[in-house]
Amino acid sequence: MITKKNGYLRPLDLKHGRIDMNHGAGGRVGAQLVDELFARAFNNPYLRQGNDGALLSVPAGQRLVMATDAHVISPLFFPGGDIGSLAVHGTVNDVAMLGATPLYLSASFILEEGFPLAQLKRIVESMAAASRACGVPVVTGDTKVVEKGKGDGVFISTTGLGVVPEGRDIGGANAQPGDAVLLSGSIGEHGVAVLSQRESLQFETAILSDSAALHTLVAAMLAAAPEGAVHVLRDPTRGGLATTLNEIAQQSGVGMLLQEAAIPVLPQVAAACELLGLDPLYIANEGKLVAIVAPEAASAVLAAMRTHPLGLRAAQIGQVSEDANRFVQMTTAFGGRRVVDWLSGEPLPRIC
Amino acid sequence: MITKKNGYLRPLDLKHGRIDMNHGAGGRVGAQLVDELFARAFNNPYLRQGNDGALLSVPAGQRLVMATDAHVISPLFFPGGDIGSLAVHGTVNDVAMLGATPLYLSASFILEEGFPLAQLKRIVESMAAASRACGVPVVTGDTKVVEKGKGDGVFISTTGLGVVPEGRDIGGANAQPGDAVLLSGSIGEHGVAVLSQRESLQFETAILSDSAALHTLVAAMLAAAPEGAVHVLRDPTRGGLATTLNEIAQQSGVGMLLQEAAIPVLPQVAAACELLGLDPLYIANEGKLVAIVAPEAASAVLAAMRTHPLGLRAAQIGQVSEDANRFVQMTTAFGGRRVVDWLSGEPLPRIC
Question: Where are the alpha helices (DSSP H) in chain A?
Answer without folding.
Answer: 28-33, 39-42, 83-96, 117-134, 189-198, 215-224, 240-252, 267-276, 298-306
